Amino acid sequence: MPQFRITITTCSRSVFMAVLWTLVSLPAFSADLAGSGEDVETSRVADGVYVFRWGVYRNMFVVTDEGVIATDPLNAQAAQLLMNEIRMITDQPVRYVVYSHQHWDHVAGGKIFKKAGAMFVSQENCLRHFKRRRNPDIVMPDIVFSDRYQLALGGKTVELQYFGPNHGDCLITMRLPDEKLLFIVDIVTPKRIAFRNMPDDSPPELIRTLREIEQLEFDAIIPGHGPDSMPPVSPGSAVREAREYLEALMAAVKSEWDKGNHDLARLQAGIKLPAYRNWQAYDDWLAMNVERIWAYYHMGW
Ligand SMILES: [Zn+2]
Q1: What pTM value is reported for the model?
Q2: Which of 16, 49, 79, 222 stands 20 to 30 A from 4 (CA)?
Q3: Which architecture does CATH list for 3-299?
Q4: In this model, does residue 153 exceed pLDDT 80?
């Protein structure tokens, strides 16, 4: 496989993106894991950078000569599969496990890495959640930070950044400045409307956060979710598109609200966003998205 960095420096951005899609469409390790039946796939997306997919969940790990930086372990079953995938690539120890946010479906199951000596990292607010509502499957973070934290290992850099509350109140992005990649969980899923009734989302804070993320330097994102048909990396414009969707959703509900249409069932029946009708889950979740925004205008929350 050609060197990713060479591709960046010698091609125009559009050609770079085309080459990138070609690269990432070739899984480095496709895994039915010796017939285990698990829906697992690991793709190399840059030199030393891999995306692990477990069903509709994805995380990122970075392999260096001094160890591995892993991210969201998801759950015990997925974490074991992730460890297996890492071991197919390197015998370097997993030095760090970074949590994207506090939600259990992303951050349980890390014990296998803890036993192997990894240090766990999260934004400081996550710690409060983990202490208040205990989950024996969640490994407590060893390192917490408030706004920014930089992990440097074996010549690789991962920049962790907090933007305030948005989806929960300890979500961070993980940016690889050299590779211009951004790992982003839950708040951007390309070409898909917001998840169900937007649990733990603060809609205006989410929009503010996405605007701030748009200012970071990256060419492509690694989203924390997506069907197996979606490549492991997506164009960076997905962040702006997710923000524009939320703005359109809020504007549509507010427009009806301001006309005195406060009945939820009527809003759900009447509000359509035709520009997004081809996005995933449009038919199934739009009414739930509308309910979340109705609640916002109803309650100021
Ligand atoms: Zn979440």
Answers
A1: 0.89
A2: 79
A3: 4-Layer Sandwich (3.60)
A4: yes
